[in-house]
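Subject: Sanity check before I submit

Could someone independently write out the structure tokens for this chain? I want to compare against mine line by line before I put it in a report. The sequence has 151 residues.
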Amino acid sequence: MAEKLELLHTEISSLSNQRYKLFFLLPATTNQQKLINDLNREGIPTLNIGLYLSEQLRLVPSDKRPFDVAKWLRKAINDQKHNVVCIHNIEYLFDPELKQNPIKLLEAQSGNTVLLVIWPGKAENGVLYYATPEHPEYYQNTEYSNSIMFY
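---
Independent answer below. Compare away.
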């Protein structure tokens, strides 16, 4: 476990000079809650972004929600007042109602903050997947093949 945390700190340091400071964690050998606990012990704040956004957007008319997602996501991250933040439970970002490209949205928020994202899907051969091809929320991304760590 200590080896993984050491490797993660190395990755965080290397991201500091990147334009987009986005890194994906896939809980492979541990469960998500243990990963969150490990990050918290390391002083890295964690945000349940699905819960936060659903609370903020519940009073917004559904046709206006796509326009407010980035604003609330930015506020949640900035409120942490930390240069590294982990977000988890991001499934709501894939909801067709929000009309978002989750990776592009997260990229835009990672300019000043290293964002660790606990990915709810899988990764194979450097490709991130969410859902299955026949599912309306299906998503795949190949741009972050070097920014994936199985934890």
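---
OP: Matches mine. For the report I'm noting this point. The beta strands are 22-26, 46-48, 84-88, 114-118, 122-124, 127-130, 139-141, 148-150.
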